[in-house]
């Protein structure tokens, strides 16, 4: 179980991973140490722990930890129908297919009763920090986001297209968006050797939402080349020796659908649905097979749907249309980015 403690500097509530002796606040930078609890009075006949005993070591295959965020923006003109469904389905997939323990997954959505699990900008920031806090070699981390994505002008010259990609927390209209530079700094650059991060970003304009150095450009035949997206300034956007790979719903200049055209039952994010379907149908053996499966499913759905493919999760589109939902066939193309280049059809996929 995770414990909430107040930051020693700014008093912000922080979620302390089980067994961690301290935590650094992402807001003010203060390090808060946790006092050791006094030993309980042993019952007669109880086996005494050896001096210096602490939490059991992580299992040999490493720890698993995930942040799963789905935002519906309910009762607003930006409302989306499928994002909370996406989050629930992703949590189920992580637990049943990849053996993530229930208490190692932080769920952020509007249905939560815990105020620290509402997907506000502050809570998403703190969850990202929790995800990488005290990570060790062998750890497997997952960050899944389903909600609005957008873009804003980049003035540093680090973006090829001149725009930063952003995620839109529930309170983005008052607190602002979360920019790809911040996401990269929070969950990519700290990753040490032996730690693996997978991000799944189901949002518009999400192709390079983690600002990773390389993008796998794949055509309709499954052929691909790696594009170099390293900033001209020389700023390092990779990890500290770990591995970071991201699947995203579409290219930076595209929109992602919130639609019932795929499930035929209820609304989902097109990218999340296709990712889970690829795993469930045995097409998740390699990164290339997953990406190819996702793109084929969306392309086939878009071509057969014609119009009425579903609402796009583009904040820009919704603002320009006064909150109305754009329709049309599914035209998005899921993307794969990574901190290094590799053979996508040879590298096995695992979480």
Automatic annotation (TrEMBL):
> What would be one Pfam family of this protein?
Peptidase_C14
**Segment forming the signal sequence:** none
In what residue span(s) does the Peptidase C14 caspase domain sit? 63-338
Q: Supply the InterPro entries for this chain.
A: Metacaspase (IPR050452), Pept_C14_caspase (IPR011600), Znf_LSD1 (IPR005735)
Which is one GO molecular function term here? cysteine-type endopeptidase activity
Cite the Gene3D superfamilies for this sequence: 3.40.50.12660
**Gene Ontology CC annotation, any one:** cytoplasm
| Annotated ranges, domain Zinc finger LSD1-type | 7-31
Region listing for Disordered, in residue ranges: 40-62
Q: Report any one BP term from Gene Ontology.
A: proteolysis
Q: Which NCBIfam families match?
A: LSD1 (TIGR01053)
Q: Which family, according to UniProt?
A: Belongs to the peptidase C14B family.
UniProt-recorded name of the protein? Metacaspase
């Amino acid at each position: 179980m995770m414990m909430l403690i107040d930051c020693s500097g700014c008093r912000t509530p922080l979620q302390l991973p089980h067994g961690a002796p301290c935590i650094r606040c992402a807001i003010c930078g203060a390090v808060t140490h946790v006092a050791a609890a006094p030993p309980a009075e042993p019952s007669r006949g109880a086996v005494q722990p050896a001096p210096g005993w602490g939490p059991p070591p992580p299992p040999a295959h490493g720890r698993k930890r995930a942040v799963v965020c789905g935002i519906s923006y309910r009762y607003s003109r930006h409302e989306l129908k499928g994002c909370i469904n996406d989050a629930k389905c992703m949590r189920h997939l992580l637990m049943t297919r990849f053996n993530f323990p229930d208490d190692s997954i932080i769920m952020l959505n509007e249905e939560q009763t815990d105020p620290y699990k509402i997907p506000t900008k502050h809570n998403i920031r703190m969850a990202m920090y929790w995800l990488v806090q005290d990570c060790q070699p062998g750890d497997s981390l997952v960050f899944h986001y389903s909600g609005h994505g957008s873009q804003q002008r980049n003035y540093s010259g680090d973006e090829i297209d001149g725009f930063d990609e952003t995620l839109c927390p529930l309170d983005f209209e008052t607190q602002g968006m979360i920019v790809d530079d911040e996401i990269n700094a929070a969950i990519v650059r700290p990753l040490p050797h032996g730690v693996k991060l997978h991000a799944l970003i189901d949002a518009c304009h999400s192709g390079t939402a983690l600002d990773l150095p390389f993008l796998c450009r794949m055509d309709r035949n499954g052929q691909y080349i790696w594009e170099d997206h390293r900033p001209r300034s020389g700023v390092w956007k990779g990890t500290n020796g770990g591995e970071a790979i991201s699947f995203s719903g579409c290219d930076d200049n595209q929109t992602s659908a919130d639609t019932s055209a795929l499930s035929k039952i209820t609304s989902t994010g097109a990218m999340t649905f296709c990712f889970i379907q690829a795993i469930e149908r045995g097409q998740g053996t390699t990164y290339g097979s997953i990406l190819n499966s996702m793109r084929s499913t969306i392309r086939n759905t878009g071509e057969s749907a014609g119009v009425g493919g579903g609402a796009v999760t583009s904040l820009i589109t919704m603002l320009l249309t006064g909150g109305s939902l754009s329709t049309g066939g599914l035209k998005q193309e899921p993307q794969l980015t990574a901190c290094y280049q590799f053979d996508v059809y040879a590298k096995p996929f695992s979480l």
